[in-house]
Amino acid sequence: MKSLLGEERSFIIESDDDEEDPTYNDAGAGDDGSSSDSSSCATPRAGGGDGSHPNSYTNQWPQSYRQSIDILSSVQSPSLSFLGTPTLSRISNSFLHSSFRGKTPEVISNFVKPLLRPTTSDEQQQQQQQEDIRKSSQYLLPSKKPSLQQIPEDQKAPVIGHGPSPYQQCSYTQGAMNGINVLCGVGILSTPYAIKEGGWLGLVILGVFAVLAWYTGVLLRRCLDSTDGLQTYPDIGHAAFGTTGRIAISIILYVELYACCIEYLILESDNLSKLFPNVHISIGSLTLNSHVFFAILTTLVVMPTTWLRDLTCLSYISAGGVVATVLLVICLFWVGVVDNVGFENKGSTLNVPGIPIAIGLYGYCYSGHGVFPNIYSSLKNRNQFPSIMFTCIAFSTILFTSAAVMGYKMFGESTESQFTLNLPQNLVVSKIAIWATVANPITKYALTITPLAMSLEELLPRSQQKYSNVILLRSALVISTLAVALLVPFFALVMALIGSLFAMLVTYILPCACFLAILKAKATWHQVVACSFIIVVGVTCACVGTYSSVSGIIQNYI
């Protein structure tokens, strides 16, 4: 993104007289779903060629999905030059509208300069864009005339349009890094516990899920290619099942992100209370133990990050999630080999009663399909997507398997829901692993809750889309995740529930269902059979895993 106006050709600065114009949503957030490009590999607008025409799929709620998920998934690190020039992450349209109202295009572009100095060719392109902006400023400056959206189509002035350059698109490396960053999350912490629940043969489930996740990822690509203008998972749902499908899939994706934020708070509470077990606070007759105290403390720390208008700094830090995951595996290996904890435990071959929980824990590891359509849409060479999917899933599976095997061999039947809780407290390596575990969710919390927050902000009346109201809305969301985390502080069971219910839907069931709905006439018989098989497996796993997870949570209160 060389400048906001150069990339966002349809961004219009409205005058104050237009403030009560009900067409605001079409002018800002809804003009084009690809207004959400957030990383240095911005997505070309699909369906319009030059991107000068709105996309019918992205004119409906949630219009902010594209930009918010791009912020969540993008790897933007100034130290990794091969990933491309990092850019400022997009912010909600309500923030853009209020922040840049009344400013000239030249002023706006100063807010969104790349953090790294561009190359000579990039500078020339930027200069050309700035010249185009100045020439076109008469269309962008506030005026007493009605906004552009009120002018008949044949009378609209031309808006700035530049085709996407290779500089703005993802390479193979960055696409793979983005995918790995999504998959390599907190799920790895519970893989040893999954073996404890399901036995060694349960690892077969992990392998099967990996293969099926790759296949359904390729199916999503086929769905995106089926119709011009499809860019995101909700777009696919819209093409397959109409507006109902779009809204249903969006709600599923947002609830999954909300549940992940709850999991982050439980994770922070468990690991910080391990580091500082004696911490507590007394308020009159009320005493808060270390788990409750650190859950509240974490909430107070992450809440201001959800108010940020620019999440670039968090995107930089959260890109270290891949490094943190690899570091965890290295620390686990170090504790077992160098610090002589050893790998002596044999464990059980198969534990049938625990298989449903293991299904949910393994399923959670591959819950990144809500982001993969965005990654595909941003690729410079889209034919590389199957290979990128294979790289992401294969690399992640190797890490998951390594952590699972080492963790269970080290701790056996005493394995906790997070292997960091089993690490000896007196070892420096253990502290490194725990602090790496603690740091990553703090940076990812705001990035994870933002898509849901932005979708709810779209539903606010225009007169209520004020920064103060946005802060209240986001704060309420954060506090609600704290309430749920304190009510259900069971890390493994919550993760198994997310993996059984939402991951099965998003990763396995819905891609096949959408593929059959969109391309059934063109699908081969073996594709129909494969999709039907995956749907049956997904529904069965979802029912069994969800029932076991919910039952486990209830049993903790009986």
Describe the structure.
This protein is mainly alpha-helical and 558 residues long. It has 20 helices and two strands. The protein has a two-stranded antiparallel sheet with strand order 1-2. The termini are far apart. The model is unreliable at 1-40, 42-54, 75-118 and 133-168 (pLDDT under 50).
Number of helical segments?
20
Percent of residues in helical segments? 55-70%
Approximately how much beta-strand content do the residues carry? under 5%
Number of strands: 2
> Which radius of gyration do the C-alpha atoms yield?
24 Å
Main sheet strand line-up: 1-2
Low-confidence stretches: 1-40, 42-54, 75-118, 133-168
Short overview:
The chain has helices at residues 4-7, 24-27, 65-73, 93-99, 105-111, 120-135, 172-183, 191-198, 203-226, 233-275, 290-302, 312-318, 321-337, 355-364, 372-377, 385-411, 428-459, 467-487, 491-519, 525-555; strands at 281-283, 286-288. The protein is mostly helical.
Which tags fit this structure?
disordered N terminus, 59% helix, two-stranded antiparallel sheet, globular, mainly alpha
Lay out the secondary structure:
Layout: H1 4-7, H2 24-27, H3 65-73, H4 93-99, H5 105-111, H6 120-135, H7 172-183, H8 191-198, H9 203-226, H10 233-275, E1 281-283, E2 286-288, H11 290-302, H12 312-318, H13 321-337, H14 355-364, H15 372-377, H16 385-411, H17 428-459, H18 467-487, H19 491-519, H20 525-555
Antiparallel strand pairs: 1-2
